[in-house]
Amino acid sequence: MASDNGLLSVSSIDDVQAELVTSSVRKEPVHLSSKRSRFLSRIGIEGASLLAGLGIWYVIGEYFSARLVPTPLVVAQTLWNLAITGSLERNIGASLERVLVGFLLGLVVAVPVGFLTGWYSIANRIAEPWIQFFRTIPPIALIPLIIVYLGIGKEAQISVIFFAVFLTVVITVHQGVRHVDATLIRAARVLGVEKNSKLFRYVILPSALPHIFVGIRLGLAGAWTTLIAAELIAAQHGLGYMIQVASTLFEIPVVYAGIFTIGVLGFTMDRLVLIFYRRVSRWQDVGEK
Amino acid sequence: MSLMIDEPKLRLDKIGLKLTSAQGAVHTVFEGIDVSIGQGSFVSVIGPSGCGKTSILNVIAGLVKPTSGQVLVDGTKVQGPSPQRGVVFQQYALFPWLTVRKNIEFGIRMAGGSSTVQKEVSDSLLERMGLEQWENAFPKELSGGMKQRVALARAYAVAPDILLMDEPFGALDSETRVRLQDELVAMWFDRRTTVVFITHDIDESIFLAERVLVMGGSPGQIVNDVSVDLPYPRSSDVRITEEFGEIRRKLWSALHDKQ
Ligand SMILES: Nc1ncnc2c1ncn2[C@@H]1O[C@H](COP(=O)(O)OP(=O)(O)OP(=O)(O)O)[C@@H](O)[C@H]1O
Ligand SMILES: [Mg+2]
């Protein structure tokens, strides 16, 4: 499976794939309970876990000075104050814009490239060494160079995110295409699919969809990581910038507020992707993966 | 049953297939296969595992090019796959992301058939195969027998002239198998499709077909060509008749001589 001349066999991708798949139809203990109460009990457990985490944070915060480790209440108050002045919204807006634009650009370029390298071995031969080479370079290492060429505006940050997302997604799409069952391609051919464009649309794309979603999730996580790093190093807006400025002024609650906001945004986006994924992958045979 | 007109429906003109492994070794899968199959006939192909049955089917389907000889359909050389030659694969090969109904409609959709036509055809096949309650199920929710029925319906939906079937009932329990065999014969009777049916079950090969080709040897060859003159419709009692036993013995020795 990994021994072909494919682009990679990165275990982390398989892990995420496994997680994606298992979490999409988790085996719940089957009581006589309805679907809804099962849903509630699951939300209940997740909610309790989150509450417990907040509680621990609260206890630790109480123990230290509020200037060093603020409690959740202090952070909430800080977020409120930041929101009133509008600076929180401005920074969230700036970061979100960069993440989304960089991510979408990366996705739009990576999907066709991944299809080409996965399908045509000549394309794979041409692209593979480049992708492998750049994969070993953390996108963050490119930031200084990008600052020189593009400055510290949003173009610079979007470029780094694009780069990070492209490399992640291209590999998962490539893998997805290579894992398409050859018999399904034959079945489509004998049912009258002649053009490759039709084959892509009706067979390869749906087959590769689970892999593409793994790429989307990994890419989104990578986009956030890269963006915050870029904003910490050099930016004029954004959550990373807000954290950076606050830390030089020793406004630790603002640093916490920034980190918390990043976490909430990243988590929410991931959940949205997951919900969408579950909708489009009802057909997946979980037991086999 | 089959009326042999001057031109056979399907002709395998001295076809052979050599495969080159990654190490460069050349392996001859089969060679010198020369068979004519008449319009509307039901031919089964029997042979031990690995003798090249699936490979021959792929060549007839146009999915694999023979390295020698040619396949002719109505006298025209086969250049590639076509919906005119339907295939039921050894491993079902249903599209897992499509529902039962959408799987059945796939071929018509690819041919640009309107949604009214798609629905008409799939409605009648769903009914015929007893799959009405399963029209919105995904393949993962089906038993092996149901999957095979969907595969059969999907192949039938595009009304092929020739139906190529690769051990379609191999993995089923005997009861389901008998039911699907009956359905298949009934469909064939209705439509007069030319059927090439691969199996490694001697009884099945006799029960279904008008003619049994026995494959064997390495490289694979046709070692015997036996006609089955039992009238249709055949009930399961036919298996205990004298003629059936005679053919069974003939096939058995053909299969076991040439090893
Ligand atoms: N893609 C391939 N590359 C190399 N060898 C192959 C390939 N496909 C089939 N073969 C070889 O060709 C021979 C015939 O295979 P084939 O699948 O046609 O047999 P079969 O008669 O259908 O067997 P079974 O009854 O088990 O399905 C086998 O020896 C197999 O190893
Ligand atoms: Mg086979």
TL;DR of this structure?
The complex is a heterodimer of chains A (289) and B (259). Chain A is mainly α and 289 residues long.
Q: Helices, strands, pairings?
A:
The complex is a heterodimer of chains A (289) and B (259).
Chain A: H1 11-24, H2 35-63, H3 72-85, H4 87-119, H5 121-135, H6 143-150, H7 154-178, H8 182-190, H9 196-233, H10 239-248, H11 252-280
Chain B: E1 10-20, E2 26-37, E3 42-46, H1 53-61, E4 68-73, E5 76-77, E6 85-88, H2 100-110, H3 115-128, H4 144-157, E7 162-166, H5 174-191, E8 194-199, H6 202-208, E9 211-216, E10 221-227, H7 242-257
Parallel strand pairs in B: 3-8, 3-9, 6-7, 7-8
Antiparallel strand pairs in B: 1-2, 1-4, 4-5, 9-10
The structure holds adenosine-5'-triphosphate and magnesium ion (MG).
Describe this protein's structure.
The complex is a heterodimer of chains A (289) and B (259). Chain A has helices spanning 11-24, 35-63, 72-85, 87-119, 121-135, 143-150, 154-178, 182-190, 196-233, 239-248, 252-280. Chain A is mainly alpha-helical and 289 residues long. Chain A has one domain (74-280): MetI-like (MetI-like fold), CATH 1.10.3720. The radius of gyration of chain A is 22 Å and the shape is flat. In chain A, 35% of the residues are buried. With 259 residues, chain B is α/β, with parallel strands linked by helices. Chain B folds into 2 domains: 2-84 and 162-257, 3-Layer(aba) Sandwich (Rossmann fold); 91-159, no CATH class. Chain B has 7 helices and 10 strands. Chain B has helices spanning 53-61, 100-110, 115-128, 144-157, 174-191, 202-208, 242-257; strands spanning 10-20, 26-37, 42-46, 68-73, 76-77, 85-88, 162-166, 194-199, 211-216, 221-227. Chain B has a 6-stranded mixed sheet, sandwiched between helices. In chain B, α6 (202-208) packs across α7. The two termini of chain B are 32 Å apart. In chain B, 43% of the residues are buried. The mean pLDDT of chain B is 90. Classes of the chains: A mainly alpha (289), B alpha/beta (259). The A-B interface holds A 181, 183-184, 186-194, 198, 202-203, 206-207, 209, 282-285 and B 58, 61-63, 80-83, 85-87, 89, 91, 93-98, 106-107, 110-111, 138-140, 154, 158. The complex binds adenosine-5'-triphosphate and magnesium ion (MG). Magnesium ion binds at residues 53-54, 90, 166 of chain B.
